[in-house]
Structures are given as structure tokens and as C-alpha cells.
């Protein structure tokens, strides 16, 4: 059972058992949850003729419609519902909540339903956004909270932890499993989330999680983004990751409005492996191969278009009309991918990313401090390198050589400050405080562990087939350790007295602070090897370097202002 089909099943069950014309009422979070797995035309087939937000000010009475509410069980949503049920606009009310409700919430709704319009109240555990079959996100808006010390803003931190635990709980309820739980020892927030998740699953709601036992329990591993700050800082060269890095993907949609030449009907396009066969086949391909495959797709399409121009008889015309919807769809898909790749090429050229990225990859994968310092300094002096690329290069240098060459790191920071007007001073140092070598558990550069040193040497001898995609996220090593039963208890302790005998078949790795599409790709490729362990990746958001830097700046601002307030 994969995440996308679990969510689709839930939504189908909500809609198909209620006959007649319906209005679907969602909140700002469930809109995303539904939109990534259900298209508008599919909603229409289920007789959903209107979609509204729960906080919309609509007053119009539509008693001919049945209202299907799908909401997160938050106190705001319960208050909206209470008012709406007390003055009903619709003929019937069917209430579905995306997570476990409190008894008090059910009582509030029951007391408000004086006109007895509520037909049913149910919990459907779809409290996460499944962007790919094995990758989910919680779209948490204030994602920077995870970087703050607990004392700075305890209530926001509690909200963050609560939302993460709700999301993780829903994933396991949807998969009908109860996991053993491990966490990254060096992260306070990973430990807190792991402990609270265990309390929920084994104490407060143990009955709900009491599924048929499997021989080996699944594993939930909670890790911290700051253990691998390199991956979200790198430029990407495989299709899905590259689109998110250079243009941006939100809920599997790409906004073309800021791009000059997008056709009118393609202001916003869907990039979903579930709905687009070309994307599914190419989402993990590198940019060079992608270009070839797009050319092939365009050639195939031109063949179809040619045969369509050759209409001579009435039969030909009838055939063309029959095939026209398919032709339109193909045409839309071809032009979508061509527009996308054209835009990516333009950005790569404008920002000189081939040049920048080569140095980034060297900083991430290969030692050699002297050469690295020179390469970064040259790029800082290069007029055509953008401010944000300069910042990322210095950060990547700092993460690698903070201990080895502090003096040269200061030189680079000073150079950066003099070249980039927008640079907020101290951001590189703040990153080191947050995610420097003293804070990390994993062997990020493969230079702590003998096995990794040997592996890196072997890789150096063999050479890499593509200099732009040689980096492997830390997650890759973590998955390898799990499949081989080598994940160390001292670094990733278990919660409670649960231990794992043997290798787990299902593993959910949750990254507090957000995932990247590069990690999702590594995980999908790992799952394709059929190692006997199936991995699922989740996080508070899906990062690109822009979002990672924004979170870093926001956290730095709050830490500074709270220090000044003391």
C-alpha cells in the first residue's frame, strides 16, 4: 500500500457513498491533501459541483446540495463548523476529519446540531500530503521553528511538534501499522517528537494502533534536517529536483505566471508522477538525458500531427475528431515539458550554474581545502554569479572546512559581505551554530568512518559518470545502514523498551525541518532495488535552497531579537 493510493481510497470512500449533488468543504491544509491525489474532473465524476473553504463568508442557501466536510480537527475548524451547523445552508452534512478527534469536539458538534442535519461524523486518517507514492510532506508554514531553542517560543514549538506527530500518526494509521521508534541522538526536537509519538501510539491511543502484529515491527526513524545541511544547499540536475530548485513546485503544481513566455492555458501546470506518464518516466533523469527524451517525445508528436494534417476522406475526418481529445492532451503535455526545459536551460545559462555547480559538487564530495578555497574565491569575484549562489558556495565551504581553515573562511565571509549587498551578516556563522560538525551525528563527508573512507577512495578511482550528480545525500547511507542492520543504537536510540530483531520491512524516515527531492529520488531508487525493505520519506516541508535559506534567516532574526529582549 503506497501513500497516494491510501489517500485516494479515503477520498473516494468519502464521496461515493453519498449519492446526489455535493459540495466539498475543505480547509487550507486539506485542500493540498486532496488536490495532489484527485483532479477536478475526477471530483466532478463523483458529483462534486462546488468546492469551498470552510472559512469562506458564503451565506447563500443551497439546500439541494449535500455538504461533505473534510477538515483537520483543529479548534478553529470546530468553531467554524459549530456556527455553520447551527444555521445550515445545505440539506445534509457529512463530516470527515483527517485525524483523531477529542471527545469534547464531538460534544460541541452534537450540541450545535439542533436541526439534526449531520448524517455522520468519521475519522479518515489522511492528514498528510502525498506528493509521490513514497514521499509525503506536511506543508508546515512556520518551518523555521525547529531551529529555535525551546525557550525562545515554547508554544510555537509545541504547535510544530503536534502537527508533526499528527502527520506521522496518520501515516501509520493509513498503513495500519504500529512502529518501533528511533531518533537521532544529537537532536532535541527529534527526541521530543519521537517520545511524544510513542506516548500517543503506545499509551493514549494504544487501542487505535492495535493492529495485527507483523513478525518484525515497522520502523519510524526521526532525524533532523541539520544533520545534512548540504543537500538542501546544492543545485540539482535531475528533472523533478531541478524544477523545484529553479522554478518551484507546490503541491505538484508549477506556477508559470512569473515566466515570460508561458501560453495562456498553461499558467499553472501539474507535475505528477500519477497523472503524467512522461514525467513518471523522467522525473529522476539527469538534465542531459532529459533533453534527449523530450526531443524524442516532440518527434513522436510531430509524426501524429503530420498524419492528422493528411485528412482526405470523411472517414479520416471522423477518425481525427475521435482522437482529438487525446491529441489535445498530448499537445498540452508536450508543450508543458518543452516550456519547462526551455525555462530551466535559460536559468542555467543566466546564472552560470554549470560553473557554480561543479564547485558545489567538489565541496560536497571531494576533499582538498586549498583548491576549494581558490575555486570559491574565483566565483565570488565572478560578475555573472548571482548573490544567492555566492552565499551557498560560502556556506558549503564553511560546513566542510570550519575547523580546518577558520581564517580563510573569514576571508570568504568578508568577501561575500563586500560583494553582496543583500547578505545578512552572520548567516554563515548561524548555519555553523545550527548544523556544524559538533552538532551532527551522521558521517556527512564520509571521513569519520573507515568504511566510508574506503568507499570514497573506491569512488575516486572508478571516477563518476556525471560530475554534476556525484553527491549522495546522507539519507542514502542511513538507508544502507538500515537494510544491513548496521544503524548504531548509540547514534539512533530506541524509545522505550522496544528493540528490533531482524531487518524491518517497512521504514518511515521523517526529517524534521524538511525533505528534498534529491532525497526522495535516492529513496525511490533504493526501493527499486527490492532489498526487502520498503522506505517512505516524510518531512515538515519540501525544501529547495531558497526555502532553506529563508528558514535560516527567519530563525536567525528571532534568535537575535530574543537575545536583545533579555
UniProtKB/TrEMBL annotation:
Record membrane topology: Peripheral membrane protein
Domain of life per record: Eukaryota
Keywords from the UniProt entry: Membrane, Protein transport, Transport
Gene3D superfamilies recorded: 1.25.40.60, 3.40.50.1910, 3.40.50.2060, Syntaxin Binding Protein 1, Chain A, domain 2 (3.90.830.10)
Segments traversing the membrane: none
Localization per record: Endomembrane system
GO biological process, one term: intracellular protein transport
One GO CC term on file: SNARE complex
PANTHER family on file: VESICLE PROTEIN SORTING-ASSOCIATED
Family to which this protein belongs: Belongs to the STXBP/unc-18/SEC1 family.
Record-given protein name: Sec1-like protein
Natural source organism: Macleaya cordata
Classification of source organism: Eukaryota, Viridiplantae, Streptophyta, Embryophyta, Tracheophyta
